[in-house]
């Protein structure tokens, strides 16, 4: 039995059907936003065949410290950065926001 792939077998077919429905109702120029599982990089399965017209890739991330403490503090935790050998701990609010925005814009 073949192993299931979340994106290929479920998410991307659902997304394409949803995008077609939205654009059929509101017009082909309507932008359709999509995101991967939170705190994941763009999956390699998200090829051009799964990108409808006016596709907008819109990922987001969760700052675990804010989620657990329900408040901003002097540092933030970028889960994706932590997955790459502890490059996700930023000290100081201004530095934290700058680093997160820089990483998001440099991809």
Describe this structure in words.
- The structure is a single chain.
- The protein is an alpha+beta fold.
- It contains four helices and four strands.
- It has a two-stranded parallel ribbon with strand order 1-2. A two-stranded antiparallel ribbon has the order 3-4.
Q: Which structural class best describes the helix and strand composition?
A: alpha+beta
What is the percentage of strand-forming residues?
5-15%
Instruction: Order the strands across the largest sheet as they lie in space.
Output: 1-2
Let me know the average pLDDT.
77
List the uncertain runs.
none
Which outline best applies?
extended
SSE order: HEEHEHEH
Number of domains: 2
Q: How much is the radius of gyration in Å?
A: 17 Å
What does the main sheet amount to? Answer: 2 strands, parallel
Number of distinct helices? 4
Number of strands: 4
Short description:
The chain is an alpha+beta fold and about 110 residues long.
Task: Using brief descriptors, characterize the structure shown.
107 residues, 2 domains, two-stranded antiparallel ribbon
List the helices and strands and how they pair.
Blueprint: H1 6-26, E1 32-34, E2 55-57, H2 64-69, E3 75-77, H3 79-83, E4 89-91, H4 93-105
Parallel strand pairs: 1-2
Antiparallel strand pairs: 3-4
